[in-house]
Amino acid sequence: MVNKRDLKLKENILQRKEETFEKLYEDYSKLVMYFAFKETKNRRDSEDLVQEIFMKIYNNIESFNPYISSFKTWLVKITRNHVIDFLKNKKDVIYDNELIDHVLYNVKKKKKVEYSIRNLDDLDRDILVLKAIFKFTHKEISDAYNITEDVCKKKYAAA
User: Fold this and answer.
1) pLDDT, tens digit, for every residue of 3-46?
2) Are 126 and 73 in contact (CB under 8 A)?
3) Are 43 and 37 in contact, with CB atoms under 8 Å apart?
4) pLDDT value, residue 81
5) DSSP state of 107
6) Exposed, middle or buried by CB within 10 Å (0-12, 13-18, 19+), for 113?
7) What sign for the dihedral angle of Cα 105, 101, 124, 135?
8) 75 class by beta-carbon count within 10 Å (0-12 exposed, 13-18 middle, 19+ buried)
9) Inter-CA distances, 60 with 15, 52, 111, 114, Å
10) How many other CB atoms are found less than 10 A from the CB of residue 9?
């Protein structure tokens, strides 16, 4: 089933409506930053990657097919692939915890939540963050990670 909002989003980006791109950045930049920082552990690199990824989305919106996946799922796949490509070409990665601190800034009981999240494996952490913070559906997460919805639900419940 196609999401009419995703169809309209694609149409507006194709028409190069500036307000659409600004809204897109506002809605999804934290999500992209989460993935970029999680892998690079470097704030400056992550900020650069966010800009590159949004330009990639803007320039390649034709390849998004709302009949195959949701925009969020497509965005996660592009982000993951772009970050992987970046890391293949980058030799020195510096560890930094800024992004996790940023994501958890407004969460009550920060220390307990932070400790728990840091001790999850990568997939469980991603599922938890995508579902709880970025409001992805289990279907969108399972599509992005090529796992079944049942596995996604179980991992989310366990996390």
Assistant:
1) 888 888 888 888 888 888 888 899 999 999 999 998 888 899 99
2) no
3) yes
4) 92
5) -
6) middle
7) positive
8) buried
9) 13, 12, 40, 36
10) 19
